[in-house]
Design brief:
132 residues, mainly alpha, 64% helix
Length: 132
Amino acid sequence: MGQLDSTAVDSVIYGISNVARYNGWNIAFSGLAVVFGGLVLIALTIFLFNKLSAQADKIATKSDSDKPQIQLSSSAAEAEEDIPEDHLAAISVAVELYRRLHLETLQSAVTFASGEVNSNWKAGARFGQRKS
């Protein structure tokens, strides 16, 4: 390679003719083909995974339907009846009171009451820059 002088830089040809001269169209179309081919392969892979999972679900439901069904006893059938709202409220209060009395408090509770404010805007009052 030789050295570039100012006349070589001035003689650079811009435009469509320069693209055609150096196989720019071939490079561009081959790049497009690679990208869209990859996208088609990804879409095909996702499609096949969906088909395989649907087939696995069909097999699982067939094996579940082959098992004998267990009949519910009369006490289980009674449990499916609606419970009055006042009974539900009493049960939830009892569970909450039991939790508060006998179980440990959650250590992961998030509170905003404690802690120091780390704002640069409020830091000026500590250093005497703003007077209230």
